[in-house]
Amino acid sequence: MQYHLNGFKPGNYEVPDEVREPYPNPPIEDLPDEVDVLIVGTGPAGLTMARQLSEFPDIKTCIVDMAAGPLLFGRADGISCRTMEIMEAFNSSEMVVKETYQLKQNTFWEPDEANPENIKRTHKVADARAGLSEFTHGIVNQARLHELLLDGMERSVTHLRPHYSRELVDMTIDDSLTQDLQAHPITATFKRCDDEGAGKTETVKARFVVGTDGARSKVRKGMEIPLLGDSANKAWGVMDILLNTDFPDIRIKSFIQSKNHGAVMTIPREGGYLCRFYVELDLLGKDKRASDVKLTEQDLIAKAQKIFHPYTLDVKEVAWWSIYEVGQRIAERFDNRPVDSPEEVIPRGFVAGDACHTHSPKGGWGLNTSLPDTFNLGWKLASVLQGKCHPKLLSTYGPERRKVAQQLIDADRELSRLVATRPTAGDDSDQAKVDTAKIEAFMKRQSGFVAGTSIEYFPSYICTGQENQHLATGYHIGQRFHSAEATRVADGRVQHLGHLVKADGRWRIFLFGDKQTPTDTSSEAYKFIDFLAKDASSPVLKYTPKGADIDSVIDTYAVFQQQDLSMQDLPDYLWPAKGKYGLRDYEKVFHAEEGNDIYDLRGIDRSQGCVVIVRPDQHIAAILPVSAHEELAKFFDVFMIEQK
């Protein structure tokens, strides 16, 4: 798809440039007096949280922002492979794939030894993230990603919409009420920001609050959570531009180091014409902020033109620009509980996204870390509010996501040093000249983290069974369920198994059968299915509410090595009767695809098979032998509540 030919226009890219209009500011509606979950901030973390909770009609959610309406342009642009997978869980990946610029190559430029005032390309390489996912790392306006999440909220059963033009002025948590799950211990006071409502205040009582309100988060401050870390006292400029140039790699992501004028990183944007430039600026003085730098977009253009010599940059339009400081900070804790609180203490306030980790935007980690923050928290909060899981489950959010944030901070600190040609704070050298080969090596080493596919949670009661990792070496416990294809038995369709794990709060059990046919009553696969369907200790029977569909809480899929199976010969549990008419579900059984065998791709033990338990956020919770019925029951018993 091509767009922005005659100038940048925000809005829905499915609409032609000539008639596309920005998203209108929505009408203002009164805030509710009382809610289950209050979300403050409509960035990627806030909207991902709201998108998840919008699917549950029994959970009352409110999302609030001080902006007058949806984001139109600027901010993040990189969409990692893992973020694409999450968008697939929301049934929104197709449009993202269609509209994004897909990153396939990187180029590296350094001063020309023969003429150091000029730059020359040293090498061009394939993007290091290729092959880590069925999706490709892409580039698209953050506002467009927001729109897809907002559309999903609007179309959901709750028709959830944000409340704009509200500034949070005060938030308190009544500590005497936090351990009563039915209480509403949060009191938040908002001030209207629009002209019509200027001066008006509104108060919302909530059972839980999630602060996704950015680096200066008032929710975080209300919970007295400090940010740890410091600024590197280094400024960079960023701009999205439409330009003509004779630079040969303008449509390839490029790292450019000049001899005397600094560095530029270029990232092609969606639509074929737009491009983002990150331009290195000078050191900031002590106690100075990026907002103190008195530069304009013309200064950024002039600096870039010097760095690109001998190539020319004829900038026709600047769609958006900003100046930011490089700094890495992380919140001391990610919820309102004191440090080292036991897991039984119920947290009632949370921070996510930039509210709990700040860093430079060059690595493309901001949106791609913020969005998974609340993808992790959302299902846990919904499970607790619905009475499916013990409240202690909420205590796992902080340790899991803070580990990832710390990895982000460490990686960003290293990348910020590598791409700069001027020293940062604490660097006493006159010039920090860097070989671009080191940048390439960094990108290769960090490819899984940058893509989001190697994010791994600590062992815990929802990430366990490491002693069985050998049964499926390609499914790393704690990491996301790495999708691969298999053929559906009922109709022969080739299906990505990872795309079965939607953002609906359900757990998934994937049974990978052994060499014995599953129709043989003596086979371990048959016994496992029989256990799930009939045994009193079966977690499926124990935790599914009476009268609900058998897959409404724990959804089971089976993959077999045998390719001559018939659905009618398999146990009823694998093609259950569902809904008010008792219609059969024929989409739960698969066989390995010849020539693209999932057993080979994911290192699954053919002789024994295995069971892979997948969390609602697509991360692998456990791997068990097919015969481990008791262990499977014990796994769910730790945190789930039996349904009557």
Number of strands: 26
> What is the beta-strand fraction?
15-25%
- How are the strands of the largest sheet arranged? 6-5-12-13-14-11-15-17
Q: How far do the termini sit from each other?
A: 52 Å
How can the largest sheet be summarized?
Answer: 8 strands, mixed
The global form is globular
Provide the helix percentage.
10-25%
Topology record:
Elements: E1 34-40, H1 44-53, E2 61-64, E3 78-79, H2 81-89, H3 93-99, E4 101-102, E5 105-111, E6 119-126, E7 138-139, H4 142-155, E8 166-173, E9 186-192, E10 201-211, H5 218-222, E11 227-245, E12 253-257, E13 263-268, E14 274-283, H6 297-307, E15 313-331, E16 349-351, E17 357-358, H7 366-385, H8 397-419, H9 436-445, H10 447-451, E18 485-488, E19 494-496, E20 507-512, H11 524-534, H12 539-543, E21 554-560, E22 577-578, E23 583-584, E24 589-591, H13 598-601, E25 610-614, E26 620-624, H14 629-637
Parallel strand pairs: 1-2, 1-10, 5-12, 10-16, 20-21, 21-24
Antiparallel strand pairs: 3-7, 4-7, 5-6, 8-9, 9-10, 11-14, 11-15, 12-13, 13-14, 15-17, 18-19, 18-24, 20-25, 22-23, 25-26
Condensed summary:
It contains 14 helices and 26 strands. It is α+β, with helices and mostly antiparallel strands and 644 residues long.
Features:
single chain; 644 residues; alpha+beta; 7-stranded mixed β-sheet; 14 helices
Could you please describe the fold and organization of this structure?
This protein has helices at residues 44-53, 81-89, 93-99, 142-155, 218-222, 297-307, 366-385, 397-419, 436-445, 447-451, 524-534, 539-543, 598-601, 629-637, and strands at residues 34-40, 61-64, 78-79, 101-102, 105-111, 119-126, 138-139, 166-173, 186-192, 201-211, 227-245, 253-257, 263-268, 274-283, 313-331, 349-351, 357-358, 485-488, 494-496, 507-512, 554-560, 577-578, 583-584, 589-591, 610-614, 620-624. The strands form five sheets. It has an eight-stranded mixed beta sheet with strand order 6-5-12-13-14-11-15-17, with helices on both faces. The chain has 644 residues and is an alpha+beta fold. It starts with 33 loop residues before the first strand and ends in a 7-residue tail after the last helix. The model is unreliable at 423-432 (pLDDT under 50). The relative contact order is 0.12. Helix 1 runs parallel beside helix 7 (366-385) and helix 7 (366-385) runs antiparallel to helix 8. It is 22% helix and 25% strand.
